[in-house]
Design brief:
about 25% helix; two-stranded antiparallel ribbon; about 400 residues; alpha+beta; 2 domains; eight-stranded mixed sheet
Length: about 400
Amino acid sequence: MSGSGEPPEGTPEGVPGGDDEYRSVVFDESFVRAARIQEFSARERLDGAARAVRVRHVLPRGLARQATALILLIVVAFGFAVYMGVRHPYRSGSQDPAVRLRATVIPLVPAGPVPAVPAASPFAGSAAAHYRVGAEGINPADGSRGIGGYSEAEVDRAYTLAKEYLTDSGLDPRTTLSGDVGEVRNLLDPGQLDQFDSSLSRPADDGLHEATGWLVRFDPAAGVRMVTDQVRVQGTLRAARADDDQLEVAADHTYVYALRGPDPASGVSLFTVRRQLRFRFDHDDLRDHHVQLVQADVAAGPLACAAPVEGFRPVLAGQTAPGGLPGDDPYDHDHPAGEVCAPLASAAPAGPAAPATTAPATSATTATPASATASAAPPRGPLPAPPASRTPAAVRPSASPTPSP
């Protein structure tokens, strides 16, 4: 054997010179690099270093830069969060509650059988003959202008939203016949959605939950169909400043529909709805594409005085209103003080023969001279007359809107 090597039996224990003797004082490379004090090299000392050693940073330079950037990012994020908490673009839950809708729906009761009209030209000869078709009849009474703290562009946007609501809630067959209220619901202020949903799911004749105060809705049980999709509309929109610095748009429109019953051979008649609605807008509503409907006064007919609250059930061609126009007995405490209904002032002109539901001939032969004179008068569309009776103050809603609790 040549060269040094370990004995075959290994290094004897306790013999000086073994590795274990110096293991406690040998430093590995990682320990040396981590030392805070580093000795200058011989060249650095010859170059005139003032000290023999240099003090190294506790953290490596790369790690120190990362820590500084992280701290700066946290400070910026915290400042942005504070700014958004003070001034943010979303509406907070501490806003004033939306105003609740107050609605009055008056059925217009025909005095006799409802006359039929020609199916080919149902509006000819009626007051609706010169009305515009559909949304073309819903326009501002004058041009847009700035009102109060609302610019001309905001007033124009309020007109557009009011017209959109009147169109979706009174002209769209999906709303009037099929019961699809999605478009109408999307336009309402979120604070009114609970009242709107309750009015449709649990309608009541209490001035707050009238389904037909929100929209024109025919009772599906009536099975009525539109003869033409060209609903005639006439009315105006007017904007003004409300007392609470909101923008108010008042709408007054008459809708005239040509309807027939579920039997295709049944006669065609006109159904008229007058809607006087008041909308309120604030800057948030105009920005978020919402409306607040605060008041609705509706008169519709021909209907029975005890009309269902869930939707209109028209009295069709040749039919008479069941129960007629009842009187009010102030001595009868077993019944409510009265129902809000009114006589239908005049009807559309007579057309083709009415179906089998026409009143007996004896009724026609016993007509009074007054009725004959009325039938010879120039034809006009159905118009509301003064109500036949009034409800007490606790039932009939007031004109002023009340905030929701």
